[in-house]
Design a protein that fits this description.
By secondary structure, the chain is α+β, with helices and mostly antiparallel strands. The chain is built from 25 helices and 17 strands. It has 4 domains: 19-169, 3-Layer(aba) Sandwich (Glutaredoxin), CATH 3.40.30.10; 204-331 and 425-478, Glycosyltransferase; 345-418, Orthogonal Bundle (Arc Repressor Mutant, subunit A); 483-529 and 545-611, no CATH class. Strand 6 (265-266) and strand 7 form a beta hairpin. Helix 18 packs antiparallel against helix 19 (446-463). The chain is globular, with a radius of gyration of 26 Å.
């Protein structure tokens, strides 16, 4: 009996040792730290998760989100704070919380899985994995009752026949791709550019602006390619697509007319109802786009928008060390979506004079009843001349009174609290570096040049160590898993900086980052998004698509071609052209989603044709 009792005690203690606890308390990632008090035993993404799953023969439940995501907060409050749901997750699964901004390759792979299996994507992105690491089933936001039903059915299937379920999930990705000639065909590249233009015009909404007919996203890679194409071959139809979209984004609800900066997207095709998060990658890309558009299209108003976004980034996103934070939350400190940006009627009446209220309502066409739960959003600005006619004032009186009222609205914002995701992300800061380089090149304002130098210094001194790039930094700690995208965007930004600074050491740093990227992410003529992927089934990609961010393989290839030309490195040029000479038929049929690759092909042809 004494021996049996000892065995039972040992088994009990062993079971307690295996019991998982929440690992996210006080994590330097603000998003992960938000989940530190959940009753769910959240684990950090890493090899230990898979060891635990294999040992206990459990599925892994991976929930991917980010700090400024509204529906991530909703699902946390409804499901992950629920003790009953947490008990089920802890008992039947190995639950893992992932900050998509720290694990971009994991996020991209799982997003590709949910889009392929369900035809849509978004966050929170929740995927069940087998202990081997193969995606099995994905679910986006669902209410608690539906979530309980989903996790119950998935666990029942696993318990019934885990080997069969594992076989269903197991998909062997390609082991490599055939060698290709570095010689590109100019005719093929010309056809791709034409196909893109035709698809873009076909998808464009030249009444509302943007592409498609549902939610409105900026689609910066597509717009930048169209802009570059227009610069080379002016076309009235392309200009119409560019101007209707650029006008809509800057004049309606995607843009914050009080404080500056762009929201991530709008849920309606009229650009009126934004999701209120502000992301560094959007604002950096859009600042550069508007600055370039101002130059190419000879539109001073576009350049003014670009500089205003740079000013917003300096005011609201710059840290004390000169780098930029990741995002501003859609949720204010009281948990209200969009409330930081909205003004209810009582607030307007108490803060503004009667004349200021009249002008504000006339210029911004404010309805009697606010569209949003917490007040009015300034969406559609009328010309001061039109408001002057309506009010019987002069245009100067309207502009002066409006300026006074807007200043008071900004002062109200100063009294509000908006949570900030303070992580510094390598790739996103590289995009910001490019924007400030463009701003410095177009302006004699020293502030933009200083901002560019600060970001460049932070990348070299903090994020680039021992010829390796870190994904992120927060609270003095290196975080996350660096991705191909981080290297590609950093290399491109450093190349742009070197051409502006004309310093040889900047060009050399761009080359070292590029060389490391090829070494760590290029395998068997294909691309890994991260160096040592834990996810199975999609480790190797031959060609990547443009999403909200440009395709990282195409960006790195274009940078490599330019560096090879400047530094006279034939082997790098041939490797880049060989990586480009792929999947032309796939690109031709879906050209709208590959503008960065088409641009890289055009650069390659231009260099190849030089005597």
């Amino acid at each position: 009996m004494r021996v049996l009792g000892g065995v039972l005690l040992w088994l009990c203690l062993l079971g307690q040792a295996w019991a998982l606890g929440n690992q996210l308390q006080s994590h330097p990632s603000p998003y992960l730290a938000l989940h530190g008090d959940d009753p769910v035993a959240w684990q950090l993404w890493g090899p230990d998760v898979f060891k635990t799953a294999r040992r206990e023969n459990k599925l892994i439940y991976v929930s991917v989100g980010y700090f400024s995501c509204h529906w991530c907060h909703v699902m946390q409050g409804e499901s992950y704070k629920n003790p009953g749901i947490a008990k089920t997750l802890n008992r039947d699964f190995v639950p893992v919380k992932v900050d998509r901004e720290l694990q971009p390759a994991v996020d991209e792979a799982l997003m590709a899985f949910v889009q392929a299996t369900q035809g849509r994507g978004g966050w929170p992105l929740n995927v069940f994995l087998t202990p081997e690491g193969y995606p099995l089933y994905a679910v986006l936001y669902v209410p608690p009752a539906s979530f309980v039903e989903v996790i119950g059915k998935i666990d029942a299937l696993w318990q019934e026949d885990p080997s069969r379920i594992a076989t269903i999930a197991r998909q062997h990705g390609p082991r490599g791709f055939a060698d290709k000639s570095p010689q590109l065909t100019p005719g093929q590249v010309l056809a791709l550019g034409q196909a893109f233009e035709q698809m873009a015009i076909g998808l464009a909404d030249t009444f509302e602006g943007g592409f498609g007919n549902q939610s409105r996203f900026p689609h910066v890679p597509q717009l930048r390619y169209l802009l570059n194409r227009y610069e080379q071959m002016p076309s009235a139809r392309v200009r119409e697509v560019l101007e209707t979209t650029l006008d809509a984004m800057a004049q309606r609800g995607l843009y914050d007319h009080v404080e500056g900066g762009f929201f991530r997207y709008t849920v309606d095709p009229g650009w009126s109802v934004p999701h209120f998060e502000k992301m560094l990658y959007d604002n950096a890309q859009l600042a550069r786009l508007y600055l370039e558009a101002g130059k190419v299209l000879d539109r001073e108003d576009y350049a003014a928008v670009g500089f205003a976004v740079l000013d917003f980034m300096l005011t609201r996103m710059q840290t004390t060390n000169g780098a930029m934070v990741a995002s501003l939350s859609a949720i204010d400190d009281l948990g209200r979506e969009g409330a930081y940006y909205l003004y209810d009627d009582d607030t307007l009446e108490n803060a503004l004079t009667r004349d200021e209220q009249r002008v504000l309502r006339a210029v911004w066409s404010l309805p009697e009843a606010a569209v949003f739960d917490f007040g009015h959003l300034l969406v559609n600005q009328a010309l001061p001349e039109a408001a002057a006619i309506q009010l019987g004032w002069t245009a100067d009186e309207v502009e002066e009174t409006l300026a006074s009222g807007m200043e008071k609205l900004r002062a109200i914002r100063d009294q509000r609290v908006l949570p900030v995701d303070s992580k510094v992300l390598a790739g996103w800061n590289a995009l910001a570096l490019e924007a400030f380089v463009e701003g410095a090149a177009q302006s004699d304002q020293a502030v933009y040049a200083h901002a560019a130098r600060q970001i460049r210094r932070y990348i070299e001194t903090t994020l680039w160590q021992n010829n390796r790039l870190f994904r992120a930094s927060a609270g003095g700690s290196a975080l996350g898993t660096v991705s191909l995208a981080d290297y590609a965007y950093t290399a491109r930004a450093l190349l742009a900086f070197s051409r502006w600074s004309r310093a040889p050491e900047d060009l050399e740093l761009a080359y070292r980052v590029t060389e490391t990227a090829w070494r760590d992410f290029y395998r068997a003529n294909g691309w890994q998004r991260e160096r040592d992927p834990l996810l199975k089934g999609s480790e190797l990609q031959e060609v990547l698509r443009d999403e909200a961010l440009p395709a990282e393989d195409a960006v790195l290839i274009e940078v490599s071609l330019k560096l090879a030309e400047e530094k006279k490195i034939v082997s790098l040029a041939e490797k880049a052209r060989s990586a480009l000479n792929r999947a032309h038929e796939d690109l031709l049929g879906d050209a709208f989603f590959f503008p960065s690759r088409i641009r890289a092909l055009e650069v390659a042809i231009a260099i190849q044709s030089k005597p």
